[in-house]
């Protein structure tokens, strides 16, 4: 019986999932996570949080300072998150907050460590009033040979308004 279960498990792990959409996101204050969950609910896609091997400090100011140093030096923090079997996904939604008016270093790490060639990348962003900034330029630099779709940029913390924006963006 154990051998049979082991074979069934091994076969199931090698089969691609049927999902065509993947939603990956980085979120500190849960605003981007909330939008990612809305997108997952609308598309039925798989939802994955971008996690660092060594998380950022809990203190907001300390995180801002660390991110600033990482951006200045070009450091890409190692990630705990790695997604195998990207071939099963046609669209990959990549969500992030605006940090230092740039794409956050963990998102740069994700893009740099995953082969997204031929994929349609759908960026979405949460911010506190300053928009998406240079994040799309950064994304194009790290996302070689992929098609970048229209971005969604929303102000965090406005759930009902954001839900309507997400639905309109996906339509």
Could you write a compact summary of the structure shown?
The protein is α/β, with parallel strands linked by helices.
Cα gyration radius (Å): 17 Å
Mean pLDDT: 84
Task: Quote the distance from N terminus to C terminus.
Answer: 48 Å
* Helical fraction: 40-55%
Helix and strand pattern: HEHEHEHEHEEH
Which descriptor suits the 3D outline?
globular
Structural class: alpha/beta
Identify low-pLDDT runs.
1-18
**Sheet with the most strands?**
6 strands, parallel
How many E-type strands? 6
Strand content: 15-25%
Helical element count? 6
Q: Your description of this structure?
A:
With 171 residues, this protein is an alpha/beta fold. It is built from six helices and six strands, in the order αβαβαβαβαββα. It has helices spanning 2-14, 31-43, 60-73, 105-113, 135-142, 159-170; strands at 21-25, 46-49, 91-97, 120-127, 147-148, 152-155. Helix 2 links the parallel strand 1 and strand 2. The protein is globular, with a radius of gyration of 17 Å. Residues 1-18 have low confidence and may be disordered.
Give the tags.
single chain, 171 residues, alpha/beta, 6-stranded parallel beta sheet, 6 helices, 40% helix, 18% strand, disordered N terminus
């Amino acid at each position: 019986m154990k051998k049979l279960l082991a074979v069934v498990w091994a076969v199931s792990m090698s089969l691609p999932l049927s999902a065509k959409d993947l939603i990956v996101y980085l979120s500190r204050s849960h605003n981007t996570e909330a939008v990612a969950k809305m997108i997952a609910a609308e598309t039925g896609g798989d939802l994955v949080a971008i996690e660092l091997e060594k998380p950022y400090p809990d203190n907001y100011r300390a995180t801002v300072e660390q991110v600033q140093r990482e951006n200045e030096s070009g450091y890409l923090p190692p990630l705990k998150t790695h997604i195998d079997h990207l071939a099963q996904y046609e669209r990959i939604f990549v969500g992030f907050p605006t940090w230092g008016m740039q794409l956050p270093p963990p998102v740069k790490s994700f893009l740099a460590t995953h082969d997204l060639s031929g994929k349609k990348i759908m960026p979405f962003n949460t911010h506190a009033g300053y928009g998406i900034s240079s994040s799309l330029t950064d994304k194009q630099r790290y996302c070689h040979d992929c098609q970048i779709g229209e971005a969604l940029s929303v102000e965090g913390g406005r759930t009902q308004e954001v839900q309507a924006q997400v639905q309109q963006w996906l339509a």
